[in-house]
Design brief:
Blueprint (H helix, E strand, L loop, with lengths): L2 H19 L30 E6 L3 E6 L6 E6 L6 E11 L2 E9 L2 H4 L4 H16 L2 E10 L2 E9 L4 E9 L2 E9 L8 H5 L3 E2 L51
Antiparallel strand pairs: 1-2, 2-10, 3-4, 4-5, 5-9, 6-7, 7-8, 8-9
Helix pairs in contact: 1-3
Length: 248
């Protein structure tokens, strides 16, 4: 696996593991295979609707998250064969056993120009699958304000993962929910379709030469990533009132 593959997998997955797995392990004897907490739905009533608030992130986007405003978790990682770095910001929340995570990975424009858009997007998704030991159940191409992206669902012993990823200029957005598939996540779709871009940059023109070997980034695996720091997304919290997405 190339250094680029490792980088993409690492940046896309470290916040997911911290936020989704910490604190959701059962403390008693475990018979179920999922690590996501199961909450009994007494009386067969539908689960309560998730109360979302709008996070107006200073990084130039808005997104719905449940609960109080979250703390931003920031980190950076060295890029393969380069002296510059990628930076990462993550916001995370947990509501009724469901984890909601949004992160934005900023790459240098010159770096993004040498890597196929599909490789940056797919590398992160496959990295998440590898990190949780999951398999891709479904995926489809989508767009957000004309920018390319993918919607996907992963099945894993740690719970079901439903997410969306977009490449917007030199930035990759990852929106991720992790939940027990037997219970579901009523608020997942509202969260995943709530990303709104604020003054987004223009698309980056791709260089003809793939100097950084980005063409195999879509084969990313997790577990041996660069160690790009993402600590403490488990402090899941969230933010203030609602908005709509232009993803389709």
């Amino acid at each position: 696996m190339s250094p680029l593959s490792r980088l993409v997998a690492s940046l896309a997955t470290l916040s997911l593991i911290a936020a989704a797995c910490a604190g959701q392990q059962k403390t008693g004897p475990q018979e179920a295979t999922s690590t996501i907490e199961e909450v009994a739905n007494e009386g067969g009533d539908a689960p309560p609707a998730v109360a979302f608030n709008m996070l107006d992130a200073p990084e130039g986007f808005t997104v719905k998250l449940p609960g109080p405003p979250p703390q931003a978790q920031r980190s950076e990682a060295a890029l393969p064969k380069r002296t510059d770095k990628a930076t990462l910001v993550t916001y995370a929340a947990n509501e009724e056993g469901v984890s909601y995570i949004v992160n934005a990975v900023d790459y240098p424009e010159a770096f993004v120009a040498t890597v196929p858009a599909e490789a940056l997007i797919n590398g992160g998704i496959q990295g998440i699958a590898g990190q949780v030991g999951g398999e891709l159940k479904s995926s489809e191409d989508i767009t957000l304000d004309g920018y390319p992206g993918k919607a996907y669902v992963l099945a894993s012993p740690s719970g079901e993962v439903k997410g969306r990823s977009f490449l917007v200029g030199p930035r990759v957005y990852n929106l991720i929910t992790v939940y027990n598939a037997a219970i579901g996540a009523p608020g997942a779709d509202e969260f995943l379709t709530s990303l709104t871009l604020v003054n987004p940059p223009p698309r980056i023109e791709r260089a003809t030469a793939d100097a950084d070997g980005g063409t195999d980034a879509g084969t990313a695996e997790a577990g041996d990533g660069t160690g790009a720091a993402m600590e403490g997304a488990a402090d899941a919290g969230s933010a203030p009132d609602a908005g709509a997405s232009s993803a389709k």
